């Protein structure tokens, strides 16, 4: 075996590793006596023992070895910790290298600081047990597993000098998102992207059960990773000294291989997808921990997963802990003051080369504003409301095209193969779909340097984008509305990260995560029920108001205005829902800007209340509901010329909430001024009606609010039939007005009959012809033209 | 090459395939003239062309070849269609074999029926464009991709004679759930499970972009599947006659291999995980479709994905369509009446061997009631409310253990490695974790015939369980509450399936999908914010009330009662949220049964309104909120002996809705009787407060409702601090009463001070000691004992 480490260096590296392990065990167990200056007693131990030991020594082992190669080659490396439950390890290492005390000065590099370091871990008012936003050097919360490798690739895109090491636990490797994320190597271009070094860490067990990848034969394991397109390198064993030499030799090999790949591609251009190296590290779970506790084997088993000795009142457990801690020989590691001895501290890289201090892991530090074109330049000319038909997302796609063009290194779009389907085809005028796999003649806009990241996995798109944003860049995720639920849980975790990070003083704001949800519930009539679900908006509402924004622009110009706003924003999740089908356009650009700035407002041109008190408020949010509302208004105005209708359109859904609930919420006075204190409100809403109730239930006039929206009546039918099935169509909306406004006179019965007739004409027509009646398909707002 | 098909047979099989392709194209395009008796005209074509041609000919090809081996070996086969967008293919085949006309007699096997078959497809009032619940033989809705292989394995468990063929599209193969589901073979036991034959269908393109697996070298592809533990067999080409021979030879080989594996395991017992065969079928997208349209290559490209000629008004398109249809030589396939010629019809299997008629794909037909023990036998003895401490899910685990024992072939439990963590350890007294991968000494209850399905993938657990249920068996999914969001979207699709299936007359009800959500938001204080999310309940509420049930049993006996109820139910999704920590027990078994039967009710023993009108209603739902409410009641009763408090506990959340919204909803009269018409209600709720508002916003006394619940204030801290941070603790609840009930007299100021003192004592204590004050940890309900 190749032994690259000198006797001196291996001793020092092992000591450094022992120091990290000592600090990790200390964090899990110790309340006091951090340097074991006195014999360990039960009162030195925390009353509640929380944390995960099992994965930690392996994470520490990798860290010290990465430190060596960073120093040796002056590498720019971040460390993505898949098994984020091993929080103590990352905290320990960033403490040893000095980063931790720089960002948290009270955790000083001495005995007092070490005591605080130990106490704060998983302690009220302290730090979480996982690698989290509070942990320097992290871009991956290690609580919910599955996303580390997608994050790692997202971080590497457009970061040519960055090496992203990503430890994948064998538990996490069983998750669905992780299993597909190995294929990210088909989207990484060595010319202008950095490298990802995946380290699959096999320690054999999850919480209780064995892991799949630790229990397949080595030839299958090797085949699997060759099949994924990697060259696997095995580092297996349990003897520390042998493992140090093996890991060092392997790292030397893979670093050389990565540099070769990059050198070749950058000198000669991209020729073919390289076989990137990856490491399979097999080490015992809870390595160096107690061999046995209460007669049961512990090191190397699932019993090391969390806290090997949970009950410290058990006779002998304090002794085991003391021997365990002493096995690391702390007095060799820390000087009298409690500081890491200088010859060991010298093993860590300096300054921003320390993985805890690498600015890529605090992306806001590197974030630059996008170069944005003037969104007004893309405006659809609207001589009169409703007089022009356009496809909103196609117009938006032209803006996005130029954002791609103007920001060739800091902006990408992500989609599960729906960029063209969602009508962003214009981006292919300036870039391509990205693929470093084989490209064959006839492929449509596919190239190894494409900036449109398409893979049929919402998880991958989301994970890549999160990694890209967290390292200080910008992006947009375009998705079918129904299937964005696939990443509900990833959204949860990202929103929680943003929430926590915004309270971590040294973290800088990052670009917002922007979603375009198109091919939405009302225009998935051809794909049917499985493709019809507007509930993502409801889902995002559960997260902190500070990080959530939801927009339902009614037309192309308002979509442009909202898009520009989102691209400039920071630390939010922006959800934009907009249709891709040809639809009437309502607002010229000035009107759109004014409307979007306010977030909601009265459309005087459609109203008949002449600025006075109306008989009824017809509110709408979303493109299809807006069209149906205006069609209903037109019918009502034709049949009841004296009826005073006020039309209110809502773009920014958050305005409906009270100011105490959301910073965008309008005051109760404003709300009353728009929606009246006592008149019926017929609200046509894009999604599940209950959301509008939930947003407004504390408003004065809530008891007069009648919301029409998606009632989970979906199928394969015509677009207009979809709204009819859910009573969101013009006829049902008009009828709702009749039902709620008294004193409309004798015309009511006639109009009711007229509506019945139209609805049965509609049913008959679609059954016969398979498409909507011409008067529906060709409808245009025209009451103002008459 | 081995050529197993005689000239006669290959001709017939090819003709059968052409018939299926003809019927598929007909469904997508034709409105009339189904047998092309007249020259094709634009008016014979549907006005809206919807559907997915690209994947369909491949699906049809596989179908006819499976028919051959089913007949040859009398196999029991179901066909799981991953690329479910190819709906026309499955409809065509089930029509050809006669199943379709049996379940839909109006779609007769003649020209009239064929016209209806064509017209109904993707047509208002007709059938969806995907394989769906309406499609005979299906257990997998093909709209949202990713779940077919998990469904297939779920179907195969405990079905020793069943062969589940599962076509995986190369688009779907990119999804996260699909990527991990290949590893399901480590959980399939040839002794008592059936076989799964995965067929990876490489046709090269998704909607627009190329697929990953079609663009890696063949040696990588082969390595990948060897790494996944399969023996891959390649069937590649585009010449139909060559492909028929190749596919037939390959199917003969893999069927023989499957039978060998099964014979060996059943004769000699399970020795080691076999290398199951799988097929990689590479065929052109839109195979046999138009080679070129408008000068652009179409067959074999992404342009064949949906409708190759979308605009039929384009000159020449009708001609292309006619030539395309004629290329299948329909007059050779169908007789004068429009019926498939008998010598071709004879190729299909008979009766229940037809894949469209296989009862496993209509699981309700095979469903038998579980043999259930009497849940009362597991009751915790409760001499007085609050006098006993127990772990609710541990008690439930004893019941589950005996359900496993009594139903050794029809009940399994599924969990992402959390069975023991969620305190169902008792099940390991009678069974083990399932693994057919390597098992080593020291593994904890792992065996190849275990009935506890643990894999660290919520997607896999959900998919397996859905497949198991859809084929007529029973199961339970136990999961950490926060991470069940990972399968939000799978839940959506299953709930939609149940909704649709309940309206398909020939589908029989299946067992409900039961979730135990434990390790819930209030007891993930040690793992922290990423593990704290009670929002799954909110998510499920968006689906049809008919299929959704949510239970929050406050203690062990009520959990037993609810569990028994759920195990007997059909066609629902039952969500049970229950804690695993030692907690006070409130109801003896009789009281628990009465309470759960009603779903909510007054707890007289805790109330001080003596059955009269109270001053305040203190309502609670969930175990921790119930405990905090009772502790608050105790404090209030001690300090304000004359205050009339009514305690209402809610087990079945759906009772809060009005009867028009949910079948479990109580009447407004009942609601008013419980919650009063005008008294303040302080409601302590397990999850996000808004849900209680959403359920009750139409109730009389809603404006007096004040809900305390999770406000997204999470971290690593003590259990009691978690409730304090969210103002769900006894002190904040008691203070909320003071704030809302007037006339409590001079004691109010003293009590306010007392509360302030307690809250600051708490903060100080946890910062010093890291655990809750003894008075909190040791609190017991005792007011009735004094």
Please provide a written account of the structure.
- 2 copies of one chain form a homodimer.
- Chain A has 786 residues and is α/β, with parallel strands linked by helices.
- Chain A has 3 domains: 7-350, Rossmann fold, CATH 3.40.50; 375-583, Thiamin diphosphate (ThDP)-binding fold, Pyr/PP domains (Rossmann fold); 600-777, 3-Layer(aba) Sandwich (Rossmann fold).
- Chain A is 36% helix and 13% strand.
- Chain A is built from 25 helices and 22 strands.
- In chain A, the strands form 6 sheets. A 6-stranded parallel sheet of chain A has the order 12-9-13-14-16-15, with helices on both faces.
- In chain A, helix 15 links the parallel strand 13 and strand 14 (513-518).
- Chain A is elongated, with a radius of gyration of 30 Å.
- The mean pLDDT of chain A is 96.
- Chains A and B meet through helix 7, helix 8, helix 15, helix 21 and helix 24 of A and helix 7, helix 8, helix 15, helix 21 and helix 24 of B.
Structural class of chain A: alpha/beta
Quote the CATH topology of the largest domain in chain A: Rossmann fold
Residues in helices of chain A, as a percent range: 25-40%
CATH architecture of the largest domain in chain A: 3-Layer(aba) Sandwich
Shape of chain A: elongated
Note the total helix count of chain A.
25
Beta strand count of chain A: 22
Segments of chain A where pLDDT lies below 50 for 5+ residues? none
- Tally of separate domains of chain A: 3
The CATH class label of the largest domain in chain A is Alpha Beta
If you average the pLDDT of chain A, what whole number results? 96
How far apart the termini of chain A lie comes to: 90 Å
Q: Tell me the greatest interface.
A: A-B, 122 and 121 residues
């Amino acid at each position: 075996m190749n032994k690259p480490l000198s006797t001196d260096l291996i001793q020092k590296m092992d000591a450094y590793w022992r120091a990290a392990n000592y600090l990790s065990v200390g964090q899990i167990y110790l309340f006091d006596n951090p340097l074991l200056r006195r014999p360990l007693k039960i009162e030195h131990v925390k009353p509640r023992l929380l944390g995960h030991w099992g994965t930690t020594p392996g994470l520490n082992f990798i860290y010290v070895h990465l430190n060596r190669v960073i120093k040796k080659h002056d590498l720019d490396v971040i460390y993505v910790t898949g098994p984020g439950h091993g929080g103590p390890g990352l905290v320990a290492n960033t403490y040893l290298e000095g980063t931790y005390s720089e960002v948290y000065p009270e955790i000083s590099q001495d005995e007092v600081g070490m005591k605080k370091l130990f106490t704060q871990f998983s302690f009220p008012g302290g730090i979480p047990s996982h690698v989290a936003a509070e942990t320097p050097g992290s871009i991956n919360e290690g609580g919910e597993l599955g996303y580390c490798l997608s994050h790692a690739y997202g971080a590497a895109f457009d970061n040519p000098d960055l090496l992203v090491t990503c430890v994948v636990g064998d538990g996490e490797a069983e998750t669905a998102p992780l299993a597909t994320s190995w294929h990210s190597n088909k989207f990484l271009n060595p010319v202008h992207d950095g490298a990802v070094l995946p380290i699959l860490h096999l320690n054999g067990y999850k919480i209780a059960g064995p892991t799949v990848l630790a229990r397949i034969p080595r030839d299958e394991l090797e085949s699997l990773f060759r099949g994924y397109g990697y060259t696997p390198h095995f580092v297996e064993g349990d003897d520390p000294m042998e493992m140090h030499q093996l890991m060092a030799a392997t790292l030397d090999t893979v670093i050389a291989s990565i540099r070769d790949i990059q050198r070749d591609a950058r000198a000669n251009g991209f020729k073919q997808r390289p076989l990137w190296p990856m490491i399979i590290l097999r080490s015992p779970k809870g390595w160096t921990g107690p061999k046995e506790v209460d007669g049961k084997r512990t090191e190397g088993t699932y019993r090391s997963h969390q806290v090997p000795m949970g009950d410290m009142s058990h006779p002998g457990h304090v002794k085991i802990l003391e021997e365990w801690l002493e096995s690391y020989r702390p007095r060799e590691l820390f000087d009298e003051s409690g500081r890491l001895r200088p010859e060991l501290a010298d093993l860590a890289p300096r300054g921003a080369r320390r993985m805890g201090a690498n600015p890529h892991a605090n992306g806001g530090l590197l974030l630059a504003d996008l170069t944005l074109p003037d969104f007004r330049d893309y405006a659809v000319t609207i001589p009169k409301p409703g007089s022009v038909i356009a496809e909103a997302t196609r117009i938006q796609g032209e803006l996005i095209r130029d954002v791609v063009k103007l920001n060739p290194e800091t902006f990408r779009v992500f989609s599960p193969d729906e960029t063209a389907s969602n009508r962003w085809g214009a981006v292919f005028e300036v870039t391509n779909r990205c693929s470093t796999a084989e490209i064959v003649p006839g492929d449509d806009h596919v190239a190894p340097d494409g900036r449109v990241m398409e893979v049929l996995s919402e998880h991958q798109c989301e994970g890549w984008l999160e990694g890209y944003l967290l390292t200080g860049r910008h992006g947009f995720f375009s998705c079918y509305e129904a299937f964005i639920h696939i990443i509900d849980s990833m959204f949860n975790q990202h929103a929680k990260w943003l929430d926590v990070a915004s309270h971590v003083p040294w973290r800088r704001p990052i670009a917002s995560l922007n979603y375009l949800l198109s091919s939405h519930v009302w225009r998935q009539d051809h794909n049917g029920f499985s493709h019809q679900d507007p509930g993502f908006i409801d889902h995002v509402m559960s997260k902190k108001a500070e990080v959530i924004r939801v927009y339902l622009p009614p037309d192309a110009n308002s979509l442009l205005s909202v898009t520009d706003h989102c691209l400039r924003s920071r630390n939010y999740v922006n959800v934009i829902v907009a249709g891709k089908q040809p639809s009437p356009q309502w607002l010229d650009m000035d009107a759109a800007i004014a409307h979007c700035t306010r977030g909601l407002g009265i459309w005087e041109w459609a109203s008949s209340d002449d600025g006075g008190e109306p008989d009824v408020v017809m509110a709408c949010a979303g493109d299809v509901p807006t069209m149906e509302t205006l069609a209903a208004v037109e019918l009502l105005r034709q049949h009841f010329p004296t009826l005073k209708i006020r039309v209110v359109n809502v773009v920014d859904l958050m305005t409906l909430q009270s100011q105490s609930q959301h910073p965008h919420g309008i005051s109760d006075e404003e709300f009353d001024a728009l929606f009246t204190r006592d008149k019926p409100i017929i609200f046509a809403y894009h999604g599940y009606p209950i959301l509008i109730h939930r947003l407004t239930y504390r408003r004065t006039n809530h008891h007069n609010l009648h919301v029409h929206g998606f009632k989970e009546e979906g199928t394969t039918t015509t677009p207009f039939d979809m709204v009819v099935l859910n009573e969101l169509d013009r006829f049902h909306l008009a009828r709702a007005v009749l039902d709620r406004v008294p004193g409309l006179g004798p015309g009511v019965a006639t109009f009711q009959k007229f509506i019945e007739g139209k609805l049965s004409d509609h049913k008959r027509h679609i059954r016969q012809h398979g498409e909507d009646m011409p008067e529906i398909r060709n409808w245009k707002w025209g009451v103002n033209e008459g």
